[in-house]
Write a structure and sequence with these properties.
single chain; alpha+beta; Pdz3 Domain; Thrombin, subunit H; seven-stranded antiparallel beta sheet; six-stranded antiparallel β-barrel; 7 helices; 15% helix
Length: 404
Amino acid sequence: MQKARFMDHGLLKLGLCSAAALATAIAGWHHLPPPPSDLQTVIAESAASSQSNSSRLVQEGGGLLTRNGRSSGSRSHQRNHYATLRAYREAIGEQWKATVQILDEDKQLALGTIVRPDGWITTKSTEVPDSPIDVRLHDGTRAAGKVKIRRPDLDLALVKIERSDLPSIRWNIDAEVPVGGWLASADSRALPLALGVVSVKKRTIQQELSVLGVQLSTQKEAPSVVSVVVGSGAEAAGIREGDIIKELDGKPMAKQREVLDYLRSVPAGNRISVVVERDGNDVAMQAQMMDLSRSLLDPTEMEVNGRISARSTGFRDVIQHDTVLSPSDCGGPLIDVEGNAVGINIARAGRVCSYALPARVVASSVEEMLLSASTSPDSSQAIDLATKEDGTTVQVFKPAASGR
């Protein structure tokens, strides 16, 4: 009854969320209406098309609860306020203990979900590198971990740590959260990370093309950068206007066409090495390719509301909810008001738009990955799985330079 009363009060106001995208040229996107073949252009979306989109729940107030337990917003009744999150703690039960932090030294790359007591953890693949990582458990202890297998089609990875008797997640593959139903994103502590509401019915998110996030000059044959997209992998890597791209993954790039052809071959989420010429000097960096999502087309969205997940499209079956997350908060379990683990957060797609893979998808995929991991002859090298059109799962070729 207490949970029912909590649900009935409601913590949000409904609002329409629509925005017209800005016409932007982004290297790596090659569906052109006619202009020059050496430039890739994103078509601006009209106000009419944006108005045709389904309405979404918009969070009242702002701010996130920081790890020290303080709200970064000023409104005492916002959903992520400490007192509100405490009210949800009972519903989560002990499921939060199956949540871990995936770390690079002290930087959080993602959250993870313990799926087996003997140290198997699933997380968001494109946020986690093949190199060794640290895993922080709910009790504050750390363990060395390494990715053993990946599912690029679902953006899932399995990480192994040498621990036993760990608290593992208890999926409920039959639980259905209705539109308007409340969800808590678990954290590696008793208090939820954030709360949200299911926005629309389960749906498919179409795969978009991946981009680096630079516009190349139409006046020069050399790949000269004339602008950098806000929030893109190029901006995060430090690519600047005026840079000339000289190498991608060690391959010399003398012409624009070479750059564009290579970028088209790199999936979203993968990291590439980039060498640019700047003021007569060579500057090397790592950049992450990103899906050409709606949010990436809107510079105001990116400046005001922060980063979105590099891989945020191409999911067959997702729960869309309006929880305010960051890309590094993906990979952890999603809990309903009855304490059921109904999925894991897989992408932040916008300010109030996050995606989760349903529990039945995650549970079956984990079983397939565990089976493949147990039969893999080379346990030191992560392998990739994919789903064929007939529904069967196969191991796929993994390029040598497929940085995550």
